[in-house]
UniProtKB/TrEMBL annotation:
InterPro entries assigned to the protein according to its UniProt record, in alphabetical order: Ribosomal_bL32, Ribosomal_bL32_bact, Ribosomal_zn-bd
Native organism: Granulosicoccus antarcticus IMCC3135
GO molecular function terms attached to this record: structural constituent of ribosome
HAMAP family assigned to the protein according to its UniProt record, in alphabetical order: Ribosomal_bL32
Highest taxon in the source lineage: Bacteria
Protein name from the UniProt record: Large ribosomal subunit protein bL32
Pfam annotation, one family: Ribosomal_L32p
Amino acid sequence: MAVQKSRKTPSRRGMRRSHDALKNPTLSTDPTTGELHRRHHVTADGFYRGNQVVQTPEVSEDDDE
């Protein structure tokens, strides 16, 4: 089993962890609907790069019964 020769300092630990932080996702605005979405992903309405690529089912608000 590998065992380190000497203890690593808190500075070395911090330098190693400097790239571990999570970054915010990059958002874009759809040119057709103006909706915010993640880059290279289809919007919730089914649009991608201004074209509708997925047909979303119409949800009626009268189905409260």
